[in-house]
Description:
Helices cover 43% and strands 19% of the residues. Strands 1-9-6-2-5 form a five-stranded mixed beta sheet, with helices on both faces. A two-stranded parallel sheet has the order 3-4. It has a single domain, classed as Glycerol-3-phosphate (1)-acyltransferase (3-Layer(aba) Sandwich), CATH 3.40.1130. Helix 4 links the parallel strand 3 and strand 4. It is globular. The longest helix has 27 residues. It is of the alpha/beta class. The protein is built from seven helices and nine strands.
Amino acid sequence: MPGxxxxxxxxxxxxxxxxxxxxxxxxxxxxxxxxxxxxxxxxLDLEARKVPILFVLWHGRMLxxxxxxxxxxxxxxASQSKDGELIATWLSRIGYSVARGSSSRGGSxxxxxxxxxxxxxxHAALTVDGPxxxxxxxxxxxxxxxxxxxxWILPITSSSARPRFLASxxxxxxxxxxxxxxxxxxxxxxxxASWADGEALARIASAIDAxxxxxxxxxxxxxxDVWTRKTA
Length: 232
């Protein structure tokens, strides 16, 4: 019988190997894409003003935007599940700082970790409907993080001229290799203290939706139903 901790160490080693192999495939896939950044000046302006930034995006459109901001020391969150271990390992390898937790497990400690790191000077990023949905429903943690750090909300999203939408809860978009791909930055804004929580969450959702709709228009695609509700 394995000694104490051996099974856990084996699992971590396996996760690291899988993350390394997956990371190589993802990097090769990204290198094949023709990527255009739309409204990048919105990000650069916030950078120039030296304000903390909280990137917000839908889980189903995360693949390319995350890679566009690799090696910038951005703090994000990954769940404490086995899948989360793989994601956390991959994110760490591409230059993210990863707090472990989710809305169902370890979320409070992960949020405190993210707050500490943003206050120390890092930007943050959250897939605000992840890790398991419902799709395009903003969870409350992003609002807590924004209020505690006074970070500016910066929507970010992506689309592709030749997308493949997976049969997942969020209809995850994977651009086909060698396709034209677009990363769109939405209108940034700070959370107004006068807004009720429901209003603030709705504004975040509307801002990401608007950026996503713009990305799809530029790409010239009509996405599946999960992506086609009306935007404000």
